[in-house]
Amino acid sequence: MQVRSHRRQDVARALAWLAGFSATALLVVPKGLSVFAALMLVATLVALPEVWRPGRDPVPRAVKGLASAAFVVLAISALSMWASGASLAALDNPSRCLLLPWCAWLAWVTRVRISCLWYGALAGLLLAFVLSIAETWSGAPRAGGEANPIVFANAALVLLVVAVFARPARIGFSMQLLLAVVVALAVVAITLSGSRGALPGLGLVLLMLFVGGTPERRWRRLAMVTGVFAVLFAALWTVPWLSTQFRLDQVHADVSGYAHDQVDQPISARMGLLSVAWDAFRSAPLTGVGVGGFAQRVDDSRYCQQAPRHFCGLEHAHNDLAQWGATMGIGGIAALLLLYWVPLMIATGQVRRLKPDVPVGAGWTAGMLVAVYLISGLTQSMFSHALSTSAYVVIVGLLLGGALALMSPPDGPQKRS
User: Fold this and answer.
1) pTM for the model
2) Which of 24, 85, 145, 316 has the smallest C-beta neighbourhood within 10 Å, fewest atoms?
3) Can you spell out the DSSP letters for 325-357?
4) To which H or E segment does residue 107 belong?
5) In 3D, which of 68, 42, 24 has the Cα closest to residue 394?
């Protein structure tokens, strides 16, 4: 009986490893996460008997905390849907938050190694690089992996975070060379996507990569990174191809056009959307205009009173805080902050308990992903896209669950977290 239990555990762990690998390796592939979903479901069915094994500790409090946060998000979204009369389709993205505790539980119960995510991220970045090069050569103005270029860039940024911070802790020339290649692959993919919203997150990752770690020579590294950022920033504004690719040459005209209600360019459109979101929030601060109701507010805005424009077809505010506040009011803002805060607090606790010598590991990676989503959410609606939402809940869940397994012994009673 004991042998059968160990075999079942090994099978569940192998399936969970393959699921984690596919989640990052196929992230930039259309419907790539469907492979993860199938493997995760099978792994869960195989691992379920482990829950009732004698001597098994209860589910850690951290997993229960993630479940509570996910249910709060879903409950507030469902209440908003019911109050506004929206269809069940409005709950598509919010319901994906349930994957956050599910993935954490699966990683904890199977004790899967987070190396699955790291190896998958390396493969995923290589695939993103190849796709972006192929699309550019085929004449596409912006690489998007047959999807939205913004979502494609966000996916590449997520893979970069995993590739950098979930790596083995060893330091040597081979690892430094690999990191240089990984950063180059991500930079090329993001550059060819033309997404400016991914640049702040990319800067944060590079800053932590070069400055984080032991304090020796930290100020020297900080000065070096500052110089590199200054050169890159100058290149973005002065190199014609880069300026055109990121549409920086249009910034002045774009901002000036907004003063005359011209909202057909990226920056002026975002400013117009923030204005619509603020008006929607002020009209109903407690409840918002309802999940799925923001598109109608855009269509009813003063910007769409004349001839139809591209702006009038936009369905979200390109800012997570504005989007959740406009559609779900104060409750939506609280739910969004909870979706960030709970994983971040768990990750912080894990880093403190494991005390890694270098800023790598499951806790560090999960914390960095939350930080990247926070920054990116200032100019994009990260949770309005299915892929970005799924990437957050799946990868953060697996990372936090994997760290929980590291903090407990492999056999016998497990520590509660």
Assistant:
1) 0.89
2) 85
3) HHHHHHHHHHHHHHHHHHHHHHHHHHHHHH--S
4) helix 99-110
5) 24
